[in-house]
Amino acid sequence: MSSAVTNLYIEHVGELRRFLTRRLACVEVAAELAHETFVRYLASAPLAEIGNPRAFLFRIAANLATDYRRLQHLTPSSFVDLDSCDELASEAPGPERYVMARQQLECLRRAIDELPGKCREVFIRHKFEGISQKELAGELGVTVNAIEKHMVRALVYLRFRVMPA
User: Fold this and answer.
1) Backbone angles phi, psi at 163, to 5 degrees
2) How far is the C-alpha of 149 from the C-alpha of 145, rounded, in Å?
3) Cβ atoms of 122 and 147 closer than 8 Å
4) Is the distance from CB of 62 to CB of 20 less than 8 angstroms?
């Protein structure tokens, strides 16, 4: 049965593609629908019951082409007239937003550099390197409470330094 379908495919796929290309005016869509035609053919009634396989293939292809055209008619076109785009706002951040973000980042970097040595080290290693407060306490030979105090001190300082009231 498999070789019969293979032979049917070899014999008719080119003809189906040409048929669908004439109906749809698109080679890529025609190739895709020709493939889908054979998928549906195989999923249909038992193959032994199909009296005229070629006619059945073309009926499936014609139905797929009709469905495709209906779908294209219902969905809005993906082409937009450029003249109508003058008033459309972009959802992407504008250049001024990038400049502001860079300035804020630079301000934050300078503020972190201004932190006292131990406080800066604890803040950077915890926030940027992901080291837990417990691990930091063990490495630095201090209590977790001391690490928490360094973090609070750093966060309070950065809050007021980066976002002044």
Assistant:
1) -120, 75
2) 6
3) yes
4) no
**CB-based contacts of 113: which residues, under 8 Å, 6+ apart?**
120
Q: Is 117 helix (H, G, I), strand (E, B) or coil?
A: helix
Determine what percent of the chain is predicted with pLDDT higher than 90: 38
Query: What beta strand segments (E) does 42-85 contain?
Result: none
35 or 5: which leads in pLDDT = 35
The encoded tokens of residue 56 equal 């059945």
Tell me the backbone φ, ψ of residue 86, rounded to 5 degrees: -60, -40
40, 53 in Cβ contact below 8 A?
no
How far is 140 from 133, CA to CA, in rounded Å?
10
pLDDT, position 63: 94
- Report the half-sphere exposure of 33 (CA within 13 A, side-chain side): 29
Q: Which tokens hold the place of 16?
A: 């189906």
Q: What is the pTM of this model?
A: 0.45
- Does residue 88 surpass a pLDDT of 80? no
61 in Cβ contact with 18 (< 8 Å): no
CA distance 138 to 14: 73
- Hunting for tokens 């070899």 — which residue is that? 10
- CA 78, CA 108: separation in Å to the nearest integer? 43
| Total residues found in the chain within this entry | 165
